[in-house]
Amino acid sequence: MTIQPRSLSVEITKNVQIDYLISHPEGYEDSTHEWGLIIFLHGMDKRGEDVSQLSSYGLLEIVNEGKLSLPFIVAVPQCPSESYWNMERDAVTALVDELITIHRVDPRRIYLIGYSLGGYGVWDLAIHNPRTFAAIVPLSSGGQISKAEQLKNTAIWAFHGANDEIVPLEQMTNMVTAVEQHQGNVNLTIYPDLGHDILRTTLSNQELYTWLLEQKK
Fold it and tell me: How many Cβ atoms from other residues are within 10 Å of residue 118's Cβ?
């Protein structure tokens, strides 16, 4: 897989720009097949204006290692310094639209994965775009309980460490419970011996990607 830097500039109500990295799966260039798309949202310490720092972090680190089967287009945007993913909602939504247009993305198989700050962003984006994402994977985070009904038709697999001292487990369990109350399709994995940093443990699990492939809008 080749990781390529890109920058997206779109005009919505104001100028919106977001830098991102993109990786195509093995076989992409040799087929006309449409692929699932994963948008990965990073944590707070990766905010900034140097998108290259994401090339060996999180999901792209897993892609680089090549040990797992990841038949997806993977896009990793960078949240600017002093910003948060809910403030970049329009930019990420525009990025998804552009990727569908210029790459061979199956619009029924668009997925969100996010860790910590990115996990909050995953909940937020899915709530505000309930028809876009076939599945979301929030890690070490919580969401807007009052808007959980918006997620009743989105498959969710959430992950959290029981010993998380940065984001209390209660934030995740409360959000999961709220989705369940609206008969949503949600699963929660709690790591009994882990704290906040569950990123590599979660992303190294082939079962996660097998599950994603089963989810379609």
Answer: 28
Q: What is the pLDDT of residue 105?
A: 97
Question: Helices in the chain by DSSP H: which ranges?
Answer: 58-65, 89-102, 117-128, 169-180, 199-203, 206-213
The distance between the two most distant Cα atoms of the chain, rounded to a whole number of Å, is 47
CATH number of the domain that 198 lies in?
3.40.50.1820
The answer to whether the pTM exceeds 0.70 is yes
Count up the domains in the chain and report the number.
1
Residue 188, pLDDT > 50, answer yes
H-helix segments, 28-146: 58-65, 89-102, 117-128
Query: Distance (Å, rounded) from C-alpha 78 to C-alpha 50?
Result: 8
Handedness of CA 53, 57, 63, 65 (dihedral sign): positive
pLDDT at 1: 47
Burial of 165 (0-12, 13-18, 19+ CB in 10 A): exposed
Which structural domain, as residue segments, surrounds residue 192? 3-213
* pLDDT band (50, 70, 90) for residue 157: very high
Pairing of strands 72-77, 15-23: antiparallel
